[in-house]
Structure formats: structure tokens, C-alpha cells
Design brief:
Radius of gyration: 27 Å
Strand content: 5-15%
Largest sheet: 2 strands, antiparallel
Number of strands: 2
Helix content: 10-25%
Distance between the termini: 58 Å
Shape: elongated
Order of helices and strands: EEHHH
């Protein structure tokens, strides 16, 4: 899934809302005409579901609002990874101790 805002280690869901209207029937002649209008396929799959290294995933229907509400806790936590360390108590030198060097 997509990483959540300010917390790339927690993944959410990617929602696509598509409206596609297909005709009820397409005659073989129209199928051929459409095929001639379209560019050739970019690639033909050279693998099968049972080949080694192939992971099969299933698409499932879920309610986007319910999913968003159930992930609110995950999305609000973990922003610390993006916090600036420089904002605390001024700049720090190498070693990060925050103790100024004294000259003798």
C-alpha cells in the first residue's frame, strides 16, 4: 500500500475510482477495427502464475471511508522520523553532546 503521511513505515491503501462504460456487445468486425486503431501491446507477459518469484495478489473491494477511519491512528503517529534535530536547543557540534569547547 501507499506510505502514510509523515510515517513511511506504515502503509495504507491506494484507492482508484474508475467509471468505465462497456458496450453490451461488440461485433467481430468492430473488434478487428478497434484492434487496428490501437497501438500494439507494449509487452506480452513472459511468466506464469506458478513461476518462481511470482506473487499473485487478489484485488478486494473495501469501503474507503471505513479504511481511512481505521487507519487514523497509524497516520497520526510516527511523524518523529521527519522532525528536525536542529530545532532543539541550538546547533550542536560533532559528538552531539551540546557542551561548548573551552579554550585554554
Amino acid at each position: 500500500g501507499m506510505p502514510t503521511y509523515k510515517n513511511p513505515f506504515v502503509h495504507g491503501n491506494l484507492f482508484l475510482i474508475l467509471t468505465i462504460e462497456f458496450p453490451d456487445t461488440v461485433s467481430p468486425e468492430n473488434q478487428l477495427a478497434i484492434k487496428k486503431l490501437l497501438p500494439p501491446p507494449l509487452h506480452k507477459p513472459g511468466f506464469k502464475e506458478d513461476d518462481e518469484g511470482v506473487e499473485v495478489h487478489a484485488v478486494t473491494d473495501i469501503d474507503p471511508v471505513q479504511s481511512y477511519n481505521s487507519n487514523k491512528v497509524n497516520m497520526s503517529a510516527g511523524g518523529e522520523a521527519y522532525d528536525d534535530d536542529d530545532d532543539e536547543d541550538g546547533p550542536r557540534g560533532p559528538g552531539g553532546g551540546g557542551v561548548p569547547c573551552q579554550q585554554q
